Amino acid sequence: MTIASDRLNFAEYLKYIDGTEQRYELVNGELIPMSLGTGQHGAVIKFLERNLEVDIAEQNQDWVVLPALVGVRSPKGGRWDTCRIPDLVVMPRAQWRSLQTCEAIIEINQPAPILVIEVVSESTKRTDYRAKRAEYSVLGILEYWVVDPLVNKITIFSLDDGWYDACEFEDDEIVRSRTFPNLKLTVNQVFGNLLK
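^ thats the sequence. predicted structure below, dont judge the formating
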């Protein structure tokens, strides 16, 4: 759903306040409301956040996992008035610290996140699989996960020569990540964590 209004440029988006708690992504200058998501959507995000944090500590990396707290400025249609807010972003802790006194948005001239994860909902499936895949590859994000509870599948897109190679995981398959090679989670574990 798009909010009916005049198109906003990126600077206007950063200053936009509508007097509510509603959060928006900016897509080609249009405000797109972000839905709250189901309980399963939130449980999957929390489960992945916890497990990635453990693996980061075991790898002794100075990275941070941020749930829907960082925007990523994206190209769409050759323009830069698009800002995505991924469900999870993994980035260097120093880069996160550099955003403490400004809008928490990774800009065009800044290093890309280490990893971006989108958890699919009914309203975002087309965008998560298609539009964001194209946008994130242009930004040079080395790894992008689409975690899809609608079909119990996780797709990992790994950047190779400017294009994403896709690898799909289902059921009891262990999710294989270049960024997190020691992570030993199965798809069933990710989607079966709701009551834990």
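The CA atoms of residues 97 and 104 lie 10 Å apart.
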